[in-house]
Write a structure and sequence with these properties.
Number of strands: 2
Order of helices and strands: HHHEHEHHHHHHHHHHHHHHHHHH
Helix content: 55-70%
Shape: globular
Largest sheet: 2 strands, antiparallel
Strand content: under 5%
Number of helices: 22
Structural class: mainly alpha
Length: 491
């Protein structure tokens, strides 16, 4: 039988899949703590220098500076203030540079070597270097460990996301994808709560990293992805995993017999990876469009966050709100993307266009225009919708790529996403030309990405491609010519 039919027999989201999904979804709390670590660990408290001339050396600075707040950070331990303040941002940039590299490396590796071994390796080194961060004797060691944690954390979380999709039937991909992103947002609030009660930065880093040990040990019980095994021609092993899922779902007597995957009949298919994203015309155009959409999602998301205004007040409350503001986005996603009249494509388009216009309209509202028409509220509404778009794009991208190159495609798209996050803080500096320029950049980017999304095919209730050969079927060639696209719209 076909793989999707096998999932229908086994149970698309039975008890065993719920357990596996819950485990990998909860992993996002750990991922969020690592991602947001520098926000509290690198926080710079109020300080006073008790001499007229600014000290030039760290030793002098240590003698004359007085920190006001009751928490420690790398800034207070290594006196990263004044001329050394850039080092806090440098450590943050190194982490995001690591995420970029991790997305590039781990996607193709897991497509070639398997999801589980690559995921396990990434999580192991993530935990090891997380502890190096907590016990770093110098800033240089700290910065190096953040870079390596970025590589491992970015790659491992990408593969774990793919695993949550490939353990369940296609009709539940939207649910598992949304739960993953929702838990990440909640994880930010959890980290803020830890920071509120743990004011020593080394102990905070230690406690935030420790759940990784628990997740690593339990990960040995995870099975390999049946979709990856099937795409590689390991039909018997895929049948074993499906049988394991069936037993967990209370269907012990079920016998699974898969027919060979068409894409595994040729040896050269084993080289599937990033190169195939360029060689195949359909994949090439999809990848170009998706790269731009991911880039814009990141750019507009962080841009709106920056331009929503300084929240002021309690540092820990601000970090928690930064995560919790995203929570309402996920019910919105789940409602719209499963409706036949909206689906993945139209919903993503609408959210991106709304976020873009939110940026543009923010330029025309005065600061004292009242609570319901304030630029800050409009910008936060824009952030809500771009968060929703970001959530859908993860799910949508997974469905647009065949199994043999799914991780490679997600890795390339995540790479461009990191560029958007890196560039977003620099866009506001364009205010020197005109105060409206940053909002115009974010607005045009969001609107253009929204309209470009319309060039992609709808994937709601459509079959998932397991191999590149599946893309030769007319149902997968909507980007290849407009006539096929029009026929699909009519049907």
């Amino acid at each position: 039988m076909e793989l999707d039919k096998a999932f229908g027999s086994v149970g698309e989201f039975g008890r065993s899949q719920k357990r596996l999904t819950a485990f990998l979804v909860l992993l996002q709390v750990y991922v969020a703590c690592q991602s947001m670590l520098i926000v509290l660990v690198g926080a710079v408290p109020e300080y006073h220098i008790d001499q007229g001339e600014i000290p030039t050396s760290r030793e002098e600075l240590a003698r004359h500076v007085q920190f006001a707040d009751n928490f420690t950070s790398i800034a207070t331990e290594w006196y990263l203030i004044r001329h050394e303040a850039y080092k806090v941002n440098l450590a943050s940039s190194l982490y995001f540079a690591g995420l970029l590299i991790g997305n590039i490396i781990f996607g193709p590796l897991s497509d070639k070597l398997g999801r589980k071994p690559v995921y396990m390796s990434g999580l192991f080194f993530d935990v090891i270097f997380g502890y190096v961060t907590a016990f770093a004797p110098s800033y240089e060691i700290f910065a190096m460990s953040r870079f390596i944690v970025g590589i491992m954390n970015g790659g491992m979380s990408l593969v774990s996301f793919v695993l949550t999709q490939e353990y369940v039937g296609k009709s539940f991909w939207a649910l598992t994808g949304s739960l993953t992103n929702l838990t990440f947002a909640v994880g930010i609030a959890v980290y803020a709560t830890l920071g509120y009660y743990i004011r020593d930065w080394r102990f905070l880093a230690f406690v935030s990293n420790s759940p990784g040990v628990f997740f690593f040990l339990l990960s040995f019980m995870l099975p390999e992805s049946p979709r990856w095994l099937y795409s590689q021609g390991n039909t018997a092993e895929a049948e074993d995993v499906l049988q394991y899922l069936a037993c967990g779902n209370g269907k012990e007597r079920l016998t699974i017999k898969l027919k060979p995957c068409a894409g595994t009949m040729k040896k050269n298919d084993s080289a599937s990876g990033v190169l195939n994203l360029v060689k195949h015309p359909v994949l090439r155009w999809r990848t170009i469009i998706l790269m731009y959409i991911w880039y814009v999602c990141s750019l507009v998301y962080y841009g709106l966050t920056f331009n929503a205004g300084e929240l002021g007040g309690n540092l820990y409350l601000n970090v928690a709100l930064y995560g919790l503001i995203e929570v309402p986005a996920f019910p919105l996603c789940m409602f719209f993307i499963e409706k036949s009249w909206s689906g993945r494509r139209k919903t993503t388009t609408s959210f991106l266009i709304f976020a873009g216009f939110a940026c543009i309209f923010t330029m025309f509202l005065p600061e004292n225009s009242g609570l319901f028409f304030s630029p800050t509220l409009l910008a936060l509404c824009g952030k809500l919708t771009v968060s929703a778009a970001f959530n859908i794009v993860y799910i949508y991208t997974s469905e647009l790529y065949p199994t043999v190159v799914r991780n490679a495609g997600l890795g390339v798209c995540s790479m461009t996403c990191r560029f958007g996050g890196i560039l977003a803080p620099f866009v506001p500096s364009m205010k020197s030309f005109n105060p409206s320029v940053p909002f115009m950049v974010f607005g045009i980017s969001g609107v253009s990405a929204g309209f470009l999304t319309l060039l992609l095919p709808e994937t709601l209730n459509k079959p998932i491609a397991e191999s590149i050969e599946d893309l030769q079927s007319p149902v997968y060639q909507m980007l290849k010519n407009k006539k096929v696209n029009q026929l699909e719209e009519k049907t």
